[in-house]
Amino acid sequence: MALLWIGSVVVVIATQAFERWGPWGYMSYCSSCAALYLLVPYTPGLAELLHIGDSSTAWHERYITKANLWIAIFSFIGNYWYTHYFYRVLKAKYTFDAHMLNDVPICLYLMTHAYFMFYHVLSNFAIRFVHTRYEKNTARFVFTCVLVAVMAYMTAVGEAVTIAAFPYYSFEDRHSAIVIGSAFYGIYFLASFPMFYSIDEPDHDRASAPVTYWSLERTAVSSFAAGMIVLCLLDFSRLAFTHVELFSAL
């Protein structure tokens, strides 16, 4: 599914199709990208075809449902709250015509869902490889922490570089946005990658241990917890490395 929306992004950027869009054009496009994860897996027959679950399983018990819920909550928190750190710390701004929620284009809440689903699926593969390949010990823990940190920063850099082709998301200093801003953005994934990985994941160190399947409630709590961890880390970083006030004095 990722190939479909990523390919469409390449076409949109290459042809500059967005120059002809208004608020509803952006909403339609971003909604279609998110719909690949939110609707396609529940279409009869497609779940098995795409190897994303068994359509005979109740919708609320499927992994894809839990993954969508986790990412939807985390994406919402990220757009609604974290974006303002970029506005204040990096002087970022969106300049295209869009429907807004808390001064953030609503279409980006949807587009973020597609991006974050893709990122977290890839991070799951990497973390699972380490956990199944190496014995549980301090060295594996340290290696996993380093791996998550590297993936977090590289994911942020990759998005910053690719989004540079979109002219309606600008920064006061683009070099600082890519180098420093990516470290700031990477904080999101320091918490989210390992926490998302835990959903329905078996204990690879105890082959006989039964798999604990998460409920939707547990999934939601995990995502909200990740959101709070990231919010704290972002603000600690703001206080430690910048002199920017997040809220203007009343």
What does this structure look like?
It is a single chain. The protein is mainly α and 250 residues long. Helices cover 66% and strands 3% of the residues. The chain contains eight helices and four strands; from the N terminus they run H-H-H-H-E-E-E-H-H-E-H-H. It has helices at 2-15, 23-38, 46-49, 63-89, 106-133, 138-163, 174-197, 216-241; strands spanning 93-94, 100-101, 104-105, 169-170. A two-stranded antiparallel ribbon has the order 1-4. The chain is globular and about 55 Å long. 24% of the residues are buried. The model has no long low-confidence stretch (mean pLDDT 90).
Amino-to-carboxy terminus distance: 47 Å
State the helical fraction: 55-70%
N-to-C series of helices and strands: HHHHEEEHHEHH
List segments where confidence is low: pLDDT < 50 over at least 5 consecutive residues.
Answer: none
Strands of the largest sheet, in order across it? 1-4
Mean pLDDT: 90
Summarize the structure.
Helices cover 66% and strands 3% of the residues. It has eight helices and four strands.
Keywords:
two-stranded antiparallel sheet; 250 residues
